[in-house]
């Protein structure tokens, strides 16, 4: 047997494998002998068929099966011995004219290689690391929302200033049908709000989405419209009123503070505001980190140049999955996934360059922290270590969860690496400014 690599370019090669009779004849002969007692040929008793007739009837199929086994095993071992870092899996070149009676059988496999490239994590950039601060406007607004949320809702007959409306925004053509609660103050202009005054439960008010809110992004919250569609959206939507209530604000007292944060944590309005600020800024920090990770990702993809075996991967995509893809479908799928593949390779190179490894202890520690945070959200602020570790053990026994959590650990480690290496410009902003920066406005 002879196996060699033929380089086409830096990321495309062909593996050429030449198989000779000695590579498979012993196994073929063994299979023929095993077949003889079971062979049935007209005119002969079972088990009495001459060997040459058995070979004539079954030999070619057996030879093809045994050659395939030899080729598959040799290919696997060759890839391992050459330490080939492949994208996709080898694709056999179809040879419809292969002469199975020949002394030598030649098989060829196309392979796509992971490109070799330089990754400069410290390249000059204009990336910003945002420090998002909760300003007085946001904090006071949250206090009002808390008072309304825990206040006493009083049903009303008709819509007047200051009421809350529970209802559903609909537009069948656009697939909009979102139940929500609104106040008249959310609308950008008073003309829109005035359309609701005097309406009753069951009434329908039609409004246009263009300029409906101060910020078009609010369409994402109230109508569940995707971000790519909100800008300049100008369609009519119906709001069907299901309930009208006037909220009597909850009193800011110790009972409310304990309901929100447990006993002994908040005792005054000022302490409440401090707590709101801390919680909000912790949440904003997570969002800012995700933006930083996304911005660095985009920068690295755009500025790290390397070739991919594109045509090979498009052909490979046609062979994988339960439903085979047409060439046209594979073209679309490749275009959709190319960016993700590029970052996957960049991510791997970043981890290798910085010697980042994910250990079981990393995974266990991250899972423990996540479980404690989730339990705290549901009021379990002091679970025992035994309780937490029991949940952690169950989570880590699920392979899908292990994969999901591992990806999160990788993202966390990469984020810390990028913060250090990318040296982003630090900028302190309000949440409103951060939202504007996040959507490029």
Outline the fold blueprint:
Elements lengths: L1 E6 L4 E9 L4 H11 L15 H31 L4 E7 L11 E10 L14 E6 L2 H14 L2 E4 L8 E8 L4 E8 L6 H5 L9 E5 L9 H5 L4 H4 L5 E13 L5 H8 L7 H35 L6 H8 L9 H27 L6 H18 L7 H11 L3 H23 L3 E6 H8 L3
Parallel strand pairs: 5-11
Antiparallel strand pairs: 1-2, 2-4, 3-4, 6-10, 7-8, 7-10, 9-10
Could you state the order of secondary-structure elements as H and E? EEHHEEEHEEEHEHHEHHHHHHHEH
User: Strand portion, in percent?
Assistant: 15-25%
Number of strands: 11
Shape: elongated
How would you characterize the largest beta sheet?
5 strands, antiparallel
Distance between the termini: 64 Å
Class by alpha and beta content? alpha+beta
Mean of pLDDT: 90
Count of separate DSSP helical elements: 14
Helicity range: 40-55%
Using the CA coordinates, give the radius of gyration: 33 Å
Contiguous uncertain segments of 5+ residues: none
Write up what this structure looks like.
It is a single chain. The chain is an alpha+beta fold. Helix content is 47%, strand content 19%. The protein has helices at residues 25-35, 51-81, 136-149, 190-194, 218-222, 227-230, 254-261, 269-303, 310-317, 327-353, 360-377, 385-395, 399-421, 431-438; strands spanning 2-7, 12-20, 86-92, 104-113, 128-133, 152-155, 164-171, 176-183, 204-208, 236-248, 425-430. Strand 1 and strand 2 (12-20) form a beta hairpin. Helix 1 (25-35) crosses helix 2, helix 8 (269-303) crosses helix 13 and helix 11 packs across helix 13.
Main attributes?
five-stranded antiparallel β-sheet, 14 helices, 441 residues, elongated, alpha+beta
């Amino acid at each position: 047997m002879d196996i060699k690599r033929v380089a086409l370019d830096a990321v495309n090669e062909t593996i050429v494998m030449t198989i000779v009779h000695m590579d498979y004849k012993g196994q073929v002969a063994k299979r023929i002998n095993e077949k003889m007692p079971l062979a049935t040929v007209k005119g002969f008793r079972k088990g009495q068929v001459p060997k040459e007739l058995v070979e004539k009837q079954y030999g070619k199929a057996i030879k093809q099966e045994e050659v395939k086994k030899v080729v598959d095993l040799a290919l696997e071992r060759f890839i391992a011995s050459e330490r080939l870092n492949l994208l996709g899996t080898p694709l056999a070149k179809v040879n419809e004219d292969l002469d199975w009676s020949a002394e030598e059988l030649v098989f060829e496999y196309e392979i796509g290689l992971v490109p070799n490239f330089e990754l400069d994590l410290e390249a000059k950039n204009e990336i910003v690391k945002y420090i998002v601060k909760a300003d007085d406007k946001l904090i006071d607004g949250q206090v009002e929302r808390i008072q309304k949320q825990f206040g006493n809702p009083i049903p009303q007959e008709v819509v007047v200033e200051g009421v809350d409306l529970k209802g559903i925004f609909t537009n069948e053509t656009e697939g909009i049908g979102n139940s929500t609660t609104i106040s008249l103050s959310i609308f950008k202009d008073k003309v829109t709000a005035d359309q609701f005054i005097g309406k009753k439960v069951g009434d329908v008010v039609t409004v246009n989405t263009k300029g409906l809110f101060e910020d078009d992004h609010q369409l994402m919250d109230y109508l569940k419209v995707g971000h790519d569609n909100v800008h300049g959206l100008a369609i009519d939507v119906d709001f069907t009123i299901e309930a009208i209530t006037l909220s009597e604000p909850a009193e800011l007292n110790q009972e409310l503070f304990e309901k929100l944060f447990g006993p002994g944590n908040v005792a005054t309005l000022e302490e409440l505001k401090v707590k709101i600020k801390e919680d909000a800024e912790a949440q904003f920090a997570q969002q800012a980190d995700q933006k930083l990770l996304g911005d660095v990702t985009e920068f690295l993809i755009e500025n790290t140049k390397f070739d991919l075996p594109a045509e090979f991967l498009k052909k490979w995509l046609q062979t994988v999955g339960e439903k085979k893809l047409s060439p046209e479908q594979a073209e679309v799928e490749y275009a959709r996934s190319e960016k993700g593949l590029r970052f996957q390779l960049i991510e791997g190179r970043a981890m290798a360059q910085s010697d980042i490894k994910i250990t079981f202890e990393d995974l266990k520690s991250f899972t423990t922290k996540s479980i404690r945070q989730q339990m705290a959200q549901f009021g379990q602020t002091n679970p025992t270590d035994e309780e937490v570790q029991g949940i952690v053990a169950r989570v880590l026994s699920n392979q899908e969860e292990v994969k999901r959590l591992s990806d999160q650990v990788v993202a966390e480690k990469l984020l810390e690496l990028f913060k250090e290496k990318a040296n982003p410009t630090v900028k302190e902003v309000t949440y409103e400014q951060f939202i504007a920066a996040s959507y490029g406005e």
